[in-house]
Structures are given as structure tokens and as C-alpha cells.
Amino acid sequence: MDPFLITGAVVCLLSAVLCIGAAILRQPPNDITILSVAAVELFLLAYGGSGAVRQFAGEPVLGEAWEFWGYLLTALIVPVGAFWWSILERSRWSNLVLGAVGPTIFVMLVRMEQIWDGVAGL
Amino acid sequence: MSRTAGGSSGNEAAPAGDRRSSGPGRLLIAVYGVFALAATARAGFQILTKFAEAPVAYLLTAFAAAVYVLATVSLARPGRTWYRVSVAAVTVELVGVLAVGVLSVLDAEAFPNETVWSGFGSGYGYVPLILPLLGLAWLYRNRPGKTQFLL
Predict the structure, then answer these.
(1) What is the mean pLDDT of chain B?
(2) CA B90 → CA A94, B24, B127, distances in Å?
């Protein structure tokens, strides 16, 4: 198992649990839930940074390289968009919007790992 | 809000729209937004890299992407016109996922598991099938003019 996949899965799961938990407790988005989504974004940036280093160090993407980077750029938009959408209305439902970031990014991360390892194309 | 406030079509449109993008509606629109983003990116990739392989399936992904974008935008906008647009978009989405789902089961060759709607959206955890049902239920609950009967 790739350490990035494990790290990403943990960050996404933690963020989703915190946000959904806060929504169940009828909390509007707060520092904890917003920071947990920021952590997902930070993970994606680190993932992309290390991906760039690995690619230039001679460990190429086995699948389509630009599909990998397309996925990453798309994934980077998700936490930012969810943050923007959730602070426009500070209700507990906005925490569920933030809670949707974790599962979404996890699915995209699995796809990025598959592309990197050259497993069955899209 | 009084009953008379709902009488003029200009005034009642705004609160209906506000409710539509409020509360649970925010989550609904967020999920639609994710699907709009995913389907658009996927359609772009498929059409640019391997359009000749399965043009029907890839055009279908592009069509689905357009429907998701329209649904996302129209659900988020206030007013009766946008309400009608969102009902139309979500209905087309439901018909699309059902039709492509049935066709992909009957004729797997024509619809490999490459569109958002293949196998009733099985590649996306059946969310494409559940989403329009939730969307129509949400739109029905928040239909324009409903306040007249409530208040």
C-alpha cells in the first residue's frame, strides 16, 4: 500500500467524521471543521508536490500523465469550492457540504493512484 | 410573511428560490456541483484523447456533464424561471440515468462502463440514480407558491 494513499485516506476520513459529527450536533461550520478541510487541501498540495518530484526524478506516471495532473487540479478545486459554498450560509447543513469533501477526495485519490500505477484506464 | 405577500408573482419567487438553495438544498447543490465538475473533466478527457473509440458513450458523458452543470446553476438561483429550469434539468437527468441504465444492461457493447450513467450509475456508487430522486423531492417540497398554503 502506498503511504500517500493511507495518509490521504486518514486525512479524508478524519475530516468527514469531524464535519458530519458537527452537523449532527447542529453546529454551523467552525474552526475545527474548516481546518479539517484545509488539511485535505494541504494533503493534496503535498501529494502533487511529491508527485512532481517523483516524476522529474525518473519515476514516471505509468498511466496518462496529464490525466493524473488533470485529476489533481480538479481535486484541488473541491475543498476551496466547498469552503466558499459553506460559509455563504452558516447552518449545520454547510458542515455536511464540508463533510462531502473527504469522501470525494478519497475517491479521486484512489483514481489518481490507479493512474499513477497504470491500472486499467478510464 | 402573510398570505397576500404570496399573491404577487414577483415577490413570491424570491423566497422560494432562497429556500431552494438553503439548508439541505446546500448539500444537494454541492453534490450536483461535484458531479458537474467530475463529468465535465471526464467528458473533456474522453473527447480529447479517444473520441473515435466510443463516440456515442463520450458524447453522452458530455451531455450528462451539461445537464449536471445546468442543474447545479439552476438549483442555486432564485426565481420561478430557474425553478422550472432545475425541474427540467433534474427530470432529464432521471430519464437519462434510467434509459442509459437499461440500455447498458441490454447492450453492454454499446455502453461500456464509461459514462456516468452506465449501469444506473454503478461506477459512482449509484449516486447518479439517487440524486435526481432527491432533487425532484426537494424541488417539490420547495415549489413556488407553497408558502400560500402554509402560512
Answers:
(1) 83
(2) 22, 16, 13
Domain count for chain B, please give it.
1
Give the pLDDT confidence score for residue A122 in this predicted structure: 47
Host domain of residue B120: 4-150
Say which of B27, B34, B41 has its CB closest to residue A96: B27
Other CB atoms within 10 A of residue B138 CB:
21
Rounded Cα–Cα distance for residues B150 and A119 (Å):
55
Residue A97: φ, ψ to 5°: -60, -45
Mean pLDDT of B55-64: 89
What's the grid cell of residue A19?
A: 464535519
What span, in angstroms and rounded, lies between the C-alpha atoms of B101 and B85?
A: 24
Count of residues for chain B?
151
At residue B145, the pLDDT reads 77
Which of the residues A24, A90, A104, A110 would you substitute to probe the B interface, choosing the one with the greatest number of B C-beta atoms within 10 Å?
Answer: A104
In this complex, is the C-beta atom of A74 within 8 Å of any C-beta atom belonging to chain B? yes
For residue B7, pLDDT over 60 is answered with no
Nine-digit cell string for B97: 440515468
0.90 surpassed by complex ipTM = no
pTM over 0.90: no
